[in-house]
Amino acid sequence: MEHKVVDHLFRHHYGKMVAILTRFFGLSYIETIEDAVQDTFIKATSQWRTKIPDNPEAWLNRVAKNRTIDILRSIQAEKNRNFTITTGASSLQIDELFLDHEVADSQLRMIFVASHPSLHPNEQIAFALKTISGFSTKEIAAALLTKEETIVKRLTRAKKSIRENNIQFKYPPPEAIHERMVRVMEVIYLTFNEGFHSTNTDKLVKEDLCGEAIRLCQLLLKKEQFRTGSLYALFALLCFHMSRLESKISIDNQIVSLKNQDRTKWYFPLVRMGNSAMNKAVEYDDTSVYHYEAAIASEHLNAKTFADTNWGNISNWYEQLYAFQPTIFTLLNQAIVQLQLNDFEKTLQLLKSIEVTDLGQRGYLYYGCYAEYYMKIGEKDLSISFLDKALAETTNSLERDFLINKRSGLIK
């Protein structure tokens, strides 16, 4: 039980604790702070076996603060210097930094540190996922479809850049906000997708990560200088997807396809929040991929049944999305849509234009689409062979079960 509590708190509070302590001690101590926070959660796992504190969050904050101070004193002692704490927030006591509004402010500052132009875009995303959302290097590698050792190098380079460029723990100047916000939104989008399409081997949906992405979006939207049509569209998209979370997994822990989802489980208060955000999004002049993806998600939510889905509209949105920003994943999604429209010629044309290796860890979706194509045109054996290829590419246990069940249905 205590491990579940610690895991939950880690996901919800790791980034907050790192941001607050960084604001107090300074970015030059970021690695020490991360080590101290990590040590704190390890200590919690050990000490909470018999009894969980009445206020676990306060316990974590206190222990992390004291651990950071202890480590820094040790470092300074080794250098034969007196230990002093320097901070740009000297008028605030460290305990006051743990107040809700200060936590939010510290995390927003950390988001903009992560998106600083001195950091390479790949380093920005890796640093943000690690520092703000508490991803492990393995999870970041999975989310970014790359090797774990590559992520370690990116994180090392990011922290080196922060030191060498003397990056400050503060907001960017007004003229730099737009450029930095583009990277910030990409990080939030990736965080949500890691939860919604989890690469974890045992669990498809990580609600904590989805909730964290929405929370970060809300933090930004609370400040007028960060509001844009793109940010509102991103928030709408996340609300639309989040509304379907409960229906994605059955009570016996199996994936439920969109066609078979119980639409009464869709959480429509979130849909209404998304609709409201989209109304705000179109009041601004800027346009982004989030506008198009939110429009596509909205089409699914507007359909009372799977049969009522307006696939023609969805196809048009995907065409506009591809024209706005062409990606291989958009081509794959368009192929899936053409299957629903029974346009098999166009489906095959789209699939042949895709190089499966470019899909990385999502390659199983390509083979799954081919399997569906062959099943629809009556080539059962070919469909089974492509399901086998999809299975060979799948690491998620729930995805594997889903594909195995699909394959079994063809053999019967």
From TrEMBL:
Q: Which organism is it from?
A: marine sediment metagenome
Any one GO molecular-function label of the UniProt entry: DNA binding
Please state every residue range assigned to the domain named RNA polymerase sigma factor 70 region 4 type: 116-161
Family annotation (SUPFAM superfamilies): Sigma2 domain of RNA polymerase sigma factors, Sigma3 and sigma4 domains of RNA polymerase sigma factors, TPR-like
Annotated GO biological processes are:
DNA-templated transcription initiation
**Which parts of the sequence belong to the RNA polymerase sigma-70 region domain?**
9-74
InterPro entries associated with the record: DUF6596, RNA_pol_sigma-70_dom, RNA_pol_sigma70_r2, RNA_pol_sigma70_r4_t2, RNA_pol_sigma_r2, RNA_pol_sigma_r3/r4-like, TPR-like_helical_dom_sf, WH-like_DNA-bd_sf
Q: What is the lineage of its organism?
A: unclassified sequences, metagenomes, ecological metagenomes
Instruction: Please give the name of this protein.
Output: Uncharacterized protein
Domain DUF6596 per the UniProt entry, residue ranges: 180-281
